[in-house]
Amino acid sequence: MATKPPGNDITSAMPAPEPSPGTAIVSSDTVANPGLPGEHVRVTDLDPKEEKKAERRIALFFSLSIIGSVIAAVSYVIFPIIPGDMASVRANNMFVGLGAAIGLLGVGIGAVHWAKSLMHGHELVEERHPTRGSEETRQTAVEMFTQANKESGFTRRSLVRNTLIGALVATPIPAVALFRDLAPAADPIAKMKETMWAKGVRLTKDPSGVPIKASEVTIGSAFQVIPEGLAELEHHRLEEKAKAAVLLMRLPVEDLVEKPERASWSYQGIVAYSKICTHVGCPVALYEQQTHHLLCPCHQSEFDVSNHCEVIFGPAARPLPQLPITVDAQGYLVAQSDFTEPVGPSFWEREL
Amino acid sequence: MSTTLNNQAKSDVGPGMRFTGAAANYLDERTSASTAMKTLGRKIFPDHWSFMLGEVALYSFIVILISGTFLTFFFDPSMTEVEYEGSYLPLKGIEMSVAYHTSLDLSFDIRGGLLMRQVHHWAALLFVASIGLHMLRVFFTGAFRKPRELNWIIGFVLFILAMAEGFTGYSLPDDLLSGNGLRIIDGMIKAFPVIGVWMSYLFFGEEFPGVDVIPRLYVLHIMLLPAILIATLAIHMVLLVVNKHTQFAGPGRTNDNVVGSPVLPVFAAKAGGFFFLVFGTIMLIASMFTINPIWNYGPYDPSPVSAGTQPDWYIGFADGALRLVPPGWEFVLLGHTWSMNILAPTIVLGLFIVLVALYPFFEAWVTGDKREHHIADRPRNAPTRTAIGAAGVTFYAVLWAAASSDLIATHFKLTIEGVITSLQVLFFLAPVLAFVITKRTCLALQRKDREIALHGYESGRIVRLPGGEYIEVHEQLEDSERWRLLDYNDYKPLTVRPNDQGRITVGTRIRSGFSRWFFEDRVMPVGQKELDEAKH
Question: CA nearest B309 in A: which residue?
Answer without folding.
Answer: A298
